[in-house]
Specification:
The complex is a heterodimer of chains A (288) and B (574). Chain A is mainly α and 288 residues long. In chain A, 71% of the residues lie in helices and 0% in strands. Classes of the chains: A mainly alpha (288), B alpha+beta (574).
């Protein structure tokens, strides 16, 4: 019943449960109302944004988009009305309700035009926002677990130290082996890609230079190099340890990237959406 | 032969005498390997890097395979190491210095560990810090660029290249017109960028020019745009009789929705019709219309068009179940008689074997071609009038032609000295009275012609199928009349029944022709026949869902909208 003593007590309160998820309920009620309205309405002709219900949903959607976009400005300001946490909660939940209302506004009619462009931009903005909300809820804890008490700085220092140790230990071996070990110490997983940041799949160091160095070292034991296991083992251990630190650091990078990068989609597409939306409204009233 | 190596831990540091080492070999290998004479484990030094040879007076340095030496700034494979010379072997600088008195060796070489190029742990840690930093793309630049693209492609392009206002504004500038339009057509399709949906097939021809229908900006499409082409489209009802049904008060667009795909989306739901037709008396007290709510459950019996005056082609509509229905088509015909195959076959005729023998469908399947005497009747009804001369037949048509034919026949007979009993002559003359003079040839012909006319019209030839009228008292026999025949081409004019769409049915499935002893009301199927297959809008098991417009048309061509508009406009100016 009572929470375990080992469980960390969070002083952070998620925006998702702000005031018992008040805005979640508001959004749910709004979506349900919209769906029921769509269901019982029988416009003349196929459902579309030009029926009175379509105009109503369009107006609500327009208002919501304006308000949601205003959050981008509001969040940079201190003070104002209500805590930012509440605004954040409302931003997330009403953003989700928007996709329901906007989809019903389209009447499920999509074409290659500015109207569908506005919808698609809106959908991408909302989806990126959903990802952002997920990241904000999940990643801080995952980052803490991954770092296990260290910081990026201490991890970098640890990695550099392991590099040094590996290089030192490699001096015992001939040039070929030593060169492979140096190569392994230079492997930090290769270039950081957008794909990695997006899909979260880190590189496999053991398939690269580190793996090659370890394989070579293994062959040295009693073989051509006639090396002693005591000479080889610390180096292999260091290389392996180094690889785990790299993996950990890259995971940390991914978390940080994902916490930041979704905004690179969310914000610019919001601005493009506002412009497309303006053209959409202008076009439909221009050609009534 | 000995060499003293003195080690300096880094550039600028002093000699560490504890590390001094004398090697008494003429050839010393420098490297990391255990078999090296001078073994040093340091990053940058190869396993076997170089060999130092002493020839008694001088020291020579030679790089081993794969290694290089550096003298000054240039790399060399080998070099003399004279006193005062320096040479770099891997990370070490070897310098021969002059030995002093106390030196326990022939040569003295200092070995200085160079720091440059060595692995720097702190620097590496810093480099990792920056490598693992997340660099955000330039969000503002991205936002700006994306917005410009959206605005240019979806606003500027449609305005510049799209026919936003009128095509005329382009056509007046003849030179640019074709170029601009072709760019528009081939590349941008900019009208499509604002187009909310596919234009219906019929309107595609001019649909790329928005101004064809959207005449003014921010003003809904006017009905006049539609009526400029659809000039014959009718009101739903006579707007003077039913002002509520006056479509001039409506916009075409309120029922016909464009940009909804290949087919023009038209309001055709039953509720739309029923909203008025469920209680017509409430707004049109004198209407003869019956209230209707659903074909399957609440629809009056069909009213059939029956001829009232065949000469004037006037018809009146009677419900099929009306016992007092009057039909004045003036044709004596029953399907039952003609479909008695035995009798017809015995007569040696082909007629009557199938419906199609007499009834030929028109293209479109709405009506049948009129049944004519020549095609349908002549084979059996040959209009002979004289058994002795069956080759003589009466013409089907005007009574004058019939009289001429008869006159011709009897004239020929008179010339051939054939005699006929004088019609109406007294066989027995009164005793004592003189015999009347024998008739002249002309008199006989006239008399016979008149007699035959009367006989043919009243009974045998014409009267068999036609309703005839006897002459009034005092009129000559030649005044017999054949009353005009009129059969309407459609009996249920308010419905759009198409025979071709019902080709899966047999004729008898709906028309009780084999048992019909005459009368249109018996032949035209009633609502129950239709309901055998058709249900109302919401359908029923094993039956077809049918709404009002499945049979009825909304626009009545008898009252064209354009015409009523023009009339009203004229009246308004008066």
């Amino acid at each position: 019943m009572a929470s375990s003593a080992n469980e960390p007590v969070s002083i952070h309160r998620s925006f998702l449960v702000w005031r018992g998820g008040y805005y979640g309920k508001v959004a749910l009620a709004l979506s349900a109302l919209a769906i029921v309205g769509y269901w019982i309405d029988h416009p003349s002709g196929p459902p579309n944004g030009g029926s009175w219900l379509g105009y109503a949903y369009g107006t609500i959607g327009l208002g919501l988009i304006g308000w949601l976009a205003w959050f981008g400005i509001r969040r940079r300001r201190y003070g104002g009305q209500g805590p930012l946490e509440g605004w954040m909660s409302a931003h997330v939940y009403l953003g989700l309700a928007l996709i329901v209302i906007a989809t019903l506004h389209t009447g499920f009619r999509f074409h290659w035009n500015v109207h569908t462009l506005a919808f698609v931009l809106m959908a991408i903005v909302i989806l990126s926002g959903v990802f952002g909300a997920y990241a904000f809820v999940r990643y801080p804890a995952m980052m803490t677990t991954n770092r296990a008490g260290s910081t990026l700085k201490t991890m970098a220092a640890e990695l550099a130290s392991l590099d040094q140790q590996c290089r030192d230990l490699a001096l015992t071996f001939d040039d070929e082996v030593a060169a492979l070990v140096v190569q392994a110490t230079e492997d930090y997983g290769g270039k950081f890609t957008f794909r990695e940041g997006l899909l979260g799949r880190g590189p496999n160091l053991l398939a690269g230079a580190t793996g090659a160095a370890i394989a070579k070292l293994r062959d040295q034991v009693g073989g051509v190099g006639n090396a002693q296991p005591a000479e080889v083992l610390p180096l292999v251990q260091n290389l392996t340890k180094r690889a785990t630190v790299v993996v950990k650091m890259r995971r940390d990078w991914r978390y940080r990237a994902q916490l930041l990068l979704w905004r690179a989609v969310h914000v610019p597409l919001t601005i493009a959406l506002v412009i497309a939306l303006g053209i959409h409204v202008f076009a439909v009233f221009y050609y009534r | 032969m000995s060499t003293l190596f003195r080690f300096i831990p880094r550039v600028g540091a002093s000699i560490d005498p504890r590390q001094d080492r004398v090697i008494e070999e003429p050839s010393i290998i420098v490297g990391r390997a255990p078999d090296c004479g001078l073994r040093m484990k340091r990053d940058g030094l190869r396993y076997h890097h170089a060999v130092l040879r002493e020839d008694g007076a001088n020291i020579w340095v030679e790089a081993l395979p794969g290694a290089t030496l550096k003298k000054g700034t240039s790399e060399v494979p080998s070099s003399l190491l004279a006193v005062g010379d320096s040479i770099r072997i891997g990370p070490f600088i070897f310098t021969q210095v002059a030995p002093d008195e106390s030196t326990p060796a022939d040569h003295v070489v200092t070995v200085t560990a160079a720091e440059e190029g060595a692995f720097d742990e702190a620097a590496q840690a810093k480099s990792y810090m920056s490598r693992f930093d997340v660099t955000l793309p330039n969000i503002r630049l991205f936002a700006f660029a994306l917005s410009v693209v959206v605005f240019a492609l979806f606003f500027i392009v449609p305005i510049v290249f799209g026919p936003i206002h009128t095509a005329a504004s382009w056509t007046t500038k003849a030179g640019r017109t074709q170029a601009a339009l072709s760019v528009h057509e081939s590349i941008f399709h900019s009208a499509a960028l604002w187009n909310v949906g596919e234009i219906s097939g019929a309107h595609k021809a001019f649909g790329t020019n928005c101004a064809s229908c959207h005449e003014s900006a921010f003003v809904p499409v006017r009905s006049s745009s539609c009526l400029s082409c659809h000039q014959t489209i009718g009101q739903h009802a006579d707007p003077h009789m039913s002002p509520d049904a006056d479509l001039n008060k409506q916009r075409c667009e309120s029922c016909h929705h464009e940009h909804k795909g290949m087919t023009l989306a038209t309001r055709n739901d039953q509720a739309d019709c029923v909203s008025c037709h469920q209680d017509t008396k409430s707004y049109a007290p004198n209407t003869k219309l019956h209230d209707v709510r659903d074909f399957g459950s609440d629809h009056p019996e069909f009213s059939v068009s029956l001829v009232q005056d065949a000469a004037l082609h006037t018809v009146a509509r009677f419900p099929l179940d009306d016992k007092n229905a009057v039909d004045n088509s003036h044709l004596k015909f029953t399907h039952m008689t003609h479909l008695k195959l035995e009798k017809v076959k015995a007569a040696g005729a082909k007629v009557g074997s199938t419906c199609a023998t007499c009834h030929e469908e028109t293209p479109g399947g709405m009506v049948f071609k009129p049944v004519t005497y020549d095609k349908a009747c002549a084979e059996c009804h040959q209009l002979q009038f004289e058994p002795k001369h069956p080759e003589w037949r009466l013409p089907h048509g005007h009574p004058e032609d019939v009289a001429n034919r008869l006159r011709g026949y009897y004239s020929e007979a008179a010339l051939a000295n054939e005699t006929f009993p004088a019609p109406n002559s007294d066989i027995f003359a009164k005793p004592g009275a003189p015999l009347p003079p024998p008739p002249t040839g002309a008199e006989m012909v006239s008399a016979q012609t008149a007699n035959a006319m009367m006989s043919a019209i009243a009974r045998s030839a014409c009267g068999e199928c036609h309703v005839t009228q006897a002459p009034a008292a005092g009129e000559p026999a030649s005044a017999w009349k054949i009353l005009p025949v009129y059969v309407p081409d459609r009996f249920l004019p308010k419905a759009q029944f198409r025979h071709d769409k019902h080709a899966t049915m047999t004729c008898q499935g709906c028309h009780a022709a084999e048992t019909s002893d005459g009368g249109v009301t018996a032949l035209i199927p009633g609502i129950e026949t239709c309901r055998g297959c058709h249900a109302g809008e919401s359908g029923a098991p094993q039956r077809i869902a049918s709404r009002c417009v499945s049979c009825h048309v909304f626009h009545n061509p008898e009252h064209p909208i354009v015409e009523t508009r023009a009339t009203e406009a004229t009246e308004a100016t008066k």
